[in-house]
Amino acid sequence: MATPTARPFLKWAGGKAQLLDAFTARVPRELTEGTLPVFVEPFMGGGAVYFHFNSTFAFRECHLFDINEDLVLAYTVVKNNVSSLIEYLRDVEDEFLAKDDSGRKDYYYTIRDAFNREREEIDFTRYGDAWVERAGRFIFLNRTCFNGLYRVNSRGGFNVPFGRYKTPKILHEKVLSADSLAFRNTTIHLGDFMQAEPYIAEDTFVYFDPPYRPLNRTSSFTQYSKNRFSDEEQRRLAEFYARCDAKGARLMLSNSDPRNVDPDDTFFDDLYAGYRIDRVPARRAINCDGTKRGEVHEIIVMNYPPA
Q: Are 181 and 210 in contact (CB under 8 A)?
């Protein structure tokens, strides 16, 4: 079981930290009894739910999946070689913070250009020494870019501009070390959510956190990779959810609630008819002005009665 101090080492749009209590209150009875030893998360993202659940419950093994190549690479480096990553980030942080505002901006774009340029040279399927530097650059960009966003263009190039922070914390050494320990019972996979199916069985608890269906045109964070997560993808996921249900696994899924803006929009109620759907409060940006945040509801879909 992971150390309780493990938590996300990245800023990540749509993070679930504020909903952890709501999720924990709705876990299946078998999980609290210790009879679901396998945890699977087909959309790894920032990892808040994984780190929380792996710190709370005694899983024998965990399997994390994501289609974001650099995210999977960074997680893998934290698992396999966290000491070298910490050393790299310490040097980068010292260099960056020693510069004035103009120098920091130039440094950021130098790192971003190198990060995008080397993309074609990295083998994302085979672990190598070059992974440490790339993971370090990925974390640096995440910690110093505008709003901690991850956004790429159609060619896969990271294109988020520089964020003006006075004293950004780039190296979180204790968090990285704790997360590396948490990964000891965990296998990290690069792939589409459907590739999780071989690891899902009757003894499995699965948490699905797909890219949320946007409530409006300005709230979309689905440009998470080069491919957008459309309504058709949401339907494909619902079919996969039903297949996992047929295997006897215990399933939890979260998503946005379109009825926040249109009470007649029953997209998810129709898609997951027959399953339990709870609506829980969350604070999210609800219009194009990201500084204006309000309480909305999000949905939690379960195929079991909560404990």
A: no
In which order are the strands placed within the sheet that holds 204-208? 186-190, 61-66, 38-41, 204-208, 250-256, 293-302, 276-285
Torsion over CA of 223, 288, 237 and 68, rounded to 10 degrees? Answer: 30
The type of residue at 48 is A
Q: What is the mean pLDDT of the chain?
A: 91
Q: Which residue type sits at 95? A: E
Return the structure tokens found at 189. Answer: 């996979």
Alpha-carbon distance of 136 to 34, in angstroms, equals 37
Q: What global pTM score does this model have?
A: 0.92
pLDDT at residue 270 in the model: 97
**Distance between CA atoms of 47 and 225, rounded to whole angstroms?**
16
Q: How high is the pLDDT of residue 288?
A: 44
Strand partners, 306: 28
Structure confidence at residue 226 (pLDDT)? 52
How far is 123 from 147, CA to CA, in rounded Å?
28
Q: What is the pLDDT of residue 105?
A: 97
Tell me what pLDDT residue 157 has: 94
Pick out the chain residues at pLDDT < 70: 1-4, 216-227, 284-293
Give the model's pLDDT for residue 228. Answer: 74
